[in-house]
Amino acid sequence: MSSKTVQTLDRVVIRFAGDSGDGMQLTGDRFTSDTAALGNDLSTLPNFPAEIRAPQGTLPGVSSFQLHFADHDVLTPGDAPDVLVAMNPAALKANLGDLPRGATIIVNTDEFTKRNLAKVGYSDNPVDDGTLDSFHVHAVALTSITVEALAEFPTLTRKEKERAKNMFALGLLSWMYTRPTTGTEAFLKSKFGARPEILAANLAALTAGWNYGETTEDFASSFIVPAATMPAGTYRNITGNTALSLGLVAAAHRAGIPLVLGSYPITPASDILHALAALKRHGVTTMQAEDEIAGIGIALGASFGGAIGVTTTSGPGVALKSEAIGLAVSLELPLIIVDVQRGGPSTGLPTKTEQADLLQSMFGRNGESPVPIVAPKTPADCFTAAMDAVRIATTYRTPVFLLSDGYLANGSEPWSVPSVDSLPDLTVEFASEPNGVDPKGEPTFHPFLRDEQTLARPWAVPGTAGLEHRIGGIEKADVTGNISYDPDNHDLMTRLRQAKVDGITVPDLVVDDPSGQARVLVLGWGSTFGPIAAATRVVRNAGHPVAQAHLTHLNPFPANLGEVLKSYDRVIVPEMNLGQLSMLLRAKYLVDIRSHTSVRGLPFSTVELADVISTTLEELS
After folding, report:
1. C-alpha dist (Å) from residue 210 to 82, 169, 405, 570
2. Residue 173 near residue 85, CB atoms below 8 Å
3. What angle do CA 478, 304, 457 make, to 5 degrees?
């Protein structure tokens, strides 16, 4: 009979950290999947170096995966870990500053050699010298225990056995937080089914980790985090890139037309290409192009041919695609440009998050070249945002920017899978017959005879009899589409293209102001939603009224945005850039915006934003 106690917690934040070759992303992903299966709400933050294999045992080579799970609504991956699993000295040093006093640290003592300690500047072993006295430390020889547990596999080398230490760590944490391992076992069987000895070794290491927690005296308690209360439905854990991919496919099905992706691989957008390539059976065509310009050329050509053309990229790729985006504006064809933003400029921080492409999306083309912009707010919301981007593109015959970012792309959360019947009808009607007469009175097709409500031009599939027409980057005459250099016509067409975007139907901005007494509004866009919502929750729980609103549509803005902004004494806009949305709001609505910015490659913390809100409230009191 076990003498260990079982404690119930309402929430936990765990961070797995080690070398980029230690399997920390896989370990975190499997723990997340097993946690989602138990019904906890959760949010994750993968954080890894840009190098495929960074120098072993060094600070730049540290890869981590943070998971926040709870029995209630979770908004962020957590400000600080309650538990750190450090696979080597570099992982400990890189993450120690984030830990609150009293946090639990599990260290792999086998890696705390003099050589590895010296690599990160430790003259003494921090496990022994008192550095960690304010924490609960479990010194576990993860590597050697794993190797010993795999002694029955003589054909495996020691190095191969050592690679399974992440499964040992996963088993230990699964025991510690009462997570099932059946999902991970099924995953390992699918991954290593063709290599039975590797499969058996990983399963043995997983079991050994669980048994170590159960039998060692070092761990006196295990913990239970009850399932969260959620609306009834079918849920799956989903990343932003996967949700976005599924949203694009669902939109194409609801529109009744094929989806074609033209893409050049770039971090952190490449997973969308991978996900869509696996959905060929659902009417998806993917083409990996030789460069960014070819990728958007493929997508725009597909749109001309009657498909939903999509191109995926990040900030540097948007710069290369800018001329073709301008061509799409001129052609007035539907096109989805997915920009998964990352730290810049230039190559910048390929694996870190940022929101600094807003102005590039809004203005980064020659001439007057308006493009609608949609920005999802959570990983699961990427599905809805993708569908809405397709709605706008096909209804208004325009390219649309879909602005995700690295935090949303790689982060995950539970997603309630919608029924197909609940999805909006996006049926597209192509032009099928002439819509005018020529000077001789003969039926003809006018490619720029616009819909009176949407100002969209007809979408005519090439090869449709009687609908031959001219397209290209040179300005066209209104209605007829003939090449025109007339000054008045250019002025008219420029204003029509702008009016079309300005007239796009988007929902009014919804303000969350429970008391109705708030004098401060916190307005965000994109992935700042979670930290802002968590911070406003903290401030409200302290007894202070504060309002929150979030923009999904950034061009055009919601019709009531100006009215909302002028209803509050102070408006705070947190952004992971140097104030790009704040600049747009000041210019358009002449409202004083308090901009709070960060470009650290990481999302805002709840504490940081709660302090900003509290300071602003104090100024008004």
Report:
1. 20, 9, 36, 52
2. yes
3. 30
The full length of the chain comes to 621
Q: Provide DSSP, 446-501.
A: -TB---TTT-PPP---TT-TT-----SSS-B-TBT--B---HHHHHHHHHHHHHHH
Task: Return the SS3 of 203.
Answer: helix
Q: Residue 613: phi, psi to the nearest 5?
A: -65, -45
C-alpha Rg value of the chain to the nearest Å? 27
Q: Answer for the pair 84, 137: CB distance below 8 angstroms, yes or no.
A: no
The DSSP H or E segment spanning 253 is helix 240-255
Q: State the SS3 of 509-552.
A: CCEECCCCCCCEEEEEEHHHHHHHHHHHHHHHHCCCCCEEEEEC
Q: What are phi and psi of 51, to 5 degrees?
A: -70, 140
8 A C-beta contact, residue 315 and residue 360: yes
Does the global pTM surpass 0.90? yes
Q: Tokens 């294999």 sit at which residue?
A: 53
User: What are the DSSP E strand ranges found in 153-239?
Assistant: 221-224, 235-239
Residue-wise pLDDT tens digits, 362-414: 999 999 999 999 999 999 999 999 999 999 999 999 999 999 999 999 999 99
Q: Give φ, ψ of 592 to 5 degrees.
A: -75, 120
| Strand bridging mode 83-86 / 11-19 | parallel
Residues ≥6 apart with Cβ < 8 Å to 372: 389, 392, 393, 396, 398, 400, 401, 501, 504, 553, 555, 556
How far is the C-alpha of 243 from the C-alpha of 418, rounded, in Å?
12
DSSP 288: E
pLDDT tens, position by position, 302-359:
999 999 999 999 999 999 999 999 999 999 999 999 999 999 999 999 999 999 999 9
The token pair at 423 is 């999805």
- 3-state SS of 337-355? EEEEECECCCCCECCCCCC
**Could you write out the three-class secondary structure of 143-169?**
HHHHHHHCCCCCCCCHHHHHCCHHHHH
Predicted confidence (pLDDT) per residue in 228-282, tens digit? 999 999 999 999 999 999 999 999 999 999 999 999 999 999 999 999 999 999 9
Query: Which residues are within 8 A (CB) of 620 and not within 5 positions of it... i.e. 6 or more apart?
Result: 519, 520, 569, 570
Which amino acid is it at 109?
T
Nearest one of 567, 576, 568, 571 to 598, comparing CA atoms: 576
Strand-pair category, 399-405 with 412-416:
unpaired
Strand pairing category for 547-551 and 511-512: antiparallel
